Amino acid sequence: MTTKKRIAGVLATATASVLLVTACSAGGSTDTSGQSGDGPQTGGTVHMLQNADFSYLDPARGWDGGVNAFYRLLYRGLTMQAAGDAENPNEIVPDLAESLGEPSEDGLTWTYTLKDGIAFDNGDPITSAEVEFGISRAWDPQIGIGSPYLKTVIAAPEDYEGPYISGDLPTIETPDEKTIVFQLKQPFPEFDNVLAQVNAVPFPVGSGGGDEFINDVIASGPYTLDTYTPGSLIRLVRNEHWDPETDEVRKAYPDEWEFNIGLDAATIDERLIAGQGADADAIGSKLTAASLPRIQTPQLKDRVISAPAYCTTYMGLNTTKAPFDNVLVRQAVNTALDRSAVQNASGGTQLADIATTIIPPAVSGHKEFDLYSSEDHKGDPDAALDLLAEAGLPDGFEFTLDIRAQPAMQAQAEAVQQSLEKIGVTVNLNVIDTSIYYETIGTPSQQNHAAITGWCPDWASSASTFIPPLFDGRNITEKGNSNLAQINDPAINTRIDEIRAMADPEEAATAWGELDAQIMELAPIAPLVFEKGLFLPGSNIAGYHPSTNMTDLTIIGLKDPSKG
Asked: What are the boundaries of the signal sequence (predicted)?
């Protein structure tokens, strides 16, 4: 949300910053990392301090960078993204499956075989029936509002509405307890990546209907839920039925995880900088701009870790609502925007690069261009006014902009406001609680004229998970919609299909970059910045490899669990 998602995909990370309140548990220290001294050890409690609650505990509903990382502690799928410290952390590897999928000669059927010794947190074995059931939940009209790839790639009857309404999904076959066979709509060479999505996880048959998983989980990963106080605290403890012999990625060093929620970003930074007591065992999200001058001491600089920008922060323009149904108006907004002001609001050059494209430079397929250029990226009000006059709006207009209830996003929104005031456009800010933000803007009936959000690649830093989720008009849904612009352009849709069918990855990457420019001529969004990250883990934290996309929590531990 990865609108990651992640919406991204969908929409960028829903969690803000994080902090701890209780001391770590004492206990013996066993080095299982192959390292000594500063390597992660088994035991203790790692604390995550954050501003906002996760969107959902249920992976069929949630889908953004912060909650996706959380899900890796609780849930397992047939495949998964490799560990954050792997030689290629974007690689897809087997998880519950013995190997990656075996495609048929025509690419329309993929077969997987389950490992032995895999179970839920109550000890019940995971079989092919639970895999089919859990995956089919993605089609439920109420629950399946998370990652869209299962529904866009796996064949299903046109009227299928998930297991609670329609029963078993006939295009996922389970010939025996260990074998799962998927039928696809069309060949999709990246199908292993689709099954690494957070909603492609097993659940006991018949469970999870309605709101059953709103405040509870059925875990298959190394941890299970001990305590959940919405908006305040999540405590995870070890799942005694998780067998590490079946899991080559998750190291699960800590005995417990504590997620302390509802802390403002300044407080989180203050505690991580001070690093006192149990705060030495804490991690958070990226540092705020206000804290950057304070981390210049040698001691703190040694703890700071940087991460490149894999995500695009942008303003989606709802093409179904006037005046953004007029391409000239959308082009005028892109032309008038002072992106340098948005960059400053995002923390300056240390934390953000100016974005003029959809695909960021770190993602395969990026093409450098700027269709709405201006001197120093400060906007061109005169050119924008000409476009508005041509559109029949010489005196400007008024619109509502949805934003998250976070200081950084509000600062970005205010920079947009001030830019557009110069062309007579009034921007009214609609502030939405972070925990429900993506669900709200992902419901077209609740969308206003525009929304600021972000998108990260869902796998392998590939533009194939950037362009289609945001601009394929055939995938606009009543809930969990990632196409915030609600653009449904036949030429874009056709080109997406053509690029997906390309067997040569380099040819496809080039084509995605060209399609990026083609889409931006229609201006359904206004790219703002590519946000980078500076992170400050506690001094007792080890195995921390932060990312602006998704930090792998499953390899993090404490250097000395006896401290705290």
From this structure: 1-26
